[in-house]
Amino acid sequence: MYAEVLIEYKVKSLDRSFTYIVPAELQDRLKVGMKVVVPFGGGDSEINGFVTNIKHDTNLGNLKSIKSITDEYLVLSEELMELGKYLRDTTLCTLISAYQTMLPSSLKIKDKKANYEKFDTYLKLKMPREFVKTYLAEAKGKNQKELLQCLLDNEKVLKKNYSPSTVKTLLTKGIIEEEKVSTYRIDKEDEKKENQITLTQDQQHLYEQIIKSLNKAETFLIHGVTGSGKTEVYMHLISEVVKSGKCAIMLVPEITLSTQIVNNFYGRFGSDVAILHSALSQGEKYDEYLKILRGDAHIIVGTRSAVFAPIKNLGIIIIDEEQSESFKQENTPRYNAIDIAKWRSEYHKIPLVLGSATPTYESYARALKGVYTLLCLPKRVNDAKLPTIKVIDMSVEAKSRNMVISSYLKDKLQERLANKEQSILLLNRRGFGTLVSCSMCGYTFKCPNCDITLTYHKSSNALRCHYCGYYMIKPNECPECHEHDIKDAGLGTEKLEEKLHEMYPNARIVRMDADTTSKKGSHEKIIKDFKDEKYDILLGTQMISKGLDFPKVTLVGVISADATLNIPDFRSGERTFALLNQVAGRAGRSGLESEVVIQTFNPDNFTIKMVEMGSFLKNYQYEMSIRKKLKYPPYYYLVGIKICSKVYEDASIEATKVYNHLKTNLSHESIILGPTTAGVFRVNSVYRFQIVIKYRFDDNLVQSLRSIDEMYIGHKTVYLEVDMNPYYI
Hints:
Elements: E1 2-7, E2 17-21, E3 34-39, E4 46-55, E5 68-75, H1 78-91, H2 95-101, E6 118-125, H3 129-138, H4 142-153, E7 157-158, H5 164-172, E8 176-183, H6 201-211, E9 219-224, H7 230-243, E10 247-251, H8 255-269, E11 273-276, H9 282-293, E12 299-302, E13 314-320, H10 337-348, E14 352-356, H11 361-369, E15 373-377, E16 388-393, H12 394-399, H13 407-418, E17 422-426, E18 435-438, E19 455-457, E20 462-464, E21 471-473, E22 486-489, H14 493-503, E23 509-512, H15 522-531, E24 537-540, E25 553-558, H16 572-584, E26 595-600, H17 606-613, H18 616-630, E27 637-645, H19 648-665, E28 671-683, E29 686-695, H20 701-711, E30 718-724
Parallel strand pairs: 9-14, 9-15, 10-12, 10-13, 11-12, 13-14, 16-26, 17-24, 17-25, 23-24, 25-26
Antiparallel strand pairs: 1-2, 1-4, 3-4, 3-5, 6-7, 6-8, 18-22, 19-20, 20-21, 27-29, 27-30, 28-29
């Protein structure tokens, strides 16, 4: 018997299967999709790989044998093997990297077998029950009697609940024995409650529309205002799917959002839920993956990578906050989880449900054209009112020296504190100061590896680069003029928190950003504590803008609403509307009178006006009119190509070569822009040039992209990054 094995190797040209002999002791156990260890190259070197085919004969000679099966639990299904090929073809990645991205980090093919499986040790009787009863009658030790009586009453008991010396004595005498049982680190069965909520008329209508298509590949777009109860519709759909004997995948964009949703799902479905996201430990990831493979969980809730969950009997896929850019992976393979979900929807002939208060304009355009089925939830549950929105012109406030928080927002925060209500403040920039310089000579501290200024973090007294991670302790002396006049400028969440403490010394304030949520469990703790009203004000970056539900929040303030508007990207208006609309939706969800205060230096900007009016449709129409003229999605597709090198001249020369190759081989109707410097020209000491392709139909595109990709395989100084349908250009 022979097996074809796809190996993990850095050289792209070796992204293919090699034939190996299957030794007799593995022939009954080996399956297609298994992870194995094989010899490769000269000497005693070994490498991991996936079995892609098993056959009984071959014309090849001088073959080596498979050494071992790495993990018998891990078998990629036929569906996932095919999905890997789709991923390779649509993102131009290698097949092995496509398979790699489907696995949790604890099961990556390049890793050696690690013993992540967890066991509980139980005790059970070894001697006959009659003998134990006789021994029990004569035994003097209280602890021995207690343990033996429990074993007479129960089949087995947990070893850790009893005295080690007592256990050792009975084990030595041969009266009891140990039994190890595989267990999961996360077990939420005790949290399960029967708390299904009756759907409103609007929710019921959506539910019934989707239920009709449970055995059909159809994509639904739920456009529901914040607080309209989309999550409850999702849970009813999933409950029906599970009752029918099938499984469900529920994707959320970020760990912060998954916290509340996961708790809701545990409360409804208990340990029938498996969770997959990056904040889990390696052992927890291993457990949850095995739980899915074994069929012990029928509902998977997670972030982007959970779309690859190894479910055998999939019944529905739901993607909440579908507008989030978090569903697009920015490194190889550069896939979009929504595209993967569509593929699996087609494969299983099941519905895909996309939900958002601010869907992407591409998705909304598809819904209006009938490619997706559009379903709407125009009202909040229980007829709760949407918050009123007030826009503050900060150019006027600046004249009164209110540079950070307007007088209006100050008063509103004070009102909420007096009324024992809660407030949320959004500032989408972390750190203390965004720029550090010398007041005497103007020297500005920049990252030595990137074209970006360093951000000051006061808590660690460090200057940090948010691109490559470089940091240095803040100096007291300027390296240029040697004066001691180093100051920071700009505003980040850390500085805003300090100012809030100065303004409201009795207020309980908590900050939620990448700095305060780096430790395991920190997301959950902040969210739980704020919901339990241990804090009055929640301050954070965009991670607090989506999906969170706090009944006592009646005020939302947006500091520096212009930040996303000023990004030179055709999606900046769409992103700004979505961010402001989403964070506004955190207020008034329990029916209390609520308000949103948006601070901006551009109060007359069209997007800001539409946020104030709450008009998604008008902003959509305005942005689409611009995109049509400028030939941007959804009217044209995009490809982003980055030509990267640590040598500036090499990157520049090769970028021109790539442009000329594309110009020669692509359709004359395709538009090639560039080469230009990428948004941040140098990142981690790598210079980056960019070429953008706009196209509608081009039969030569994929082959041309593959050919230029292959041109740079093994290049000494230059490499390419090809991104189909990028989120940022």
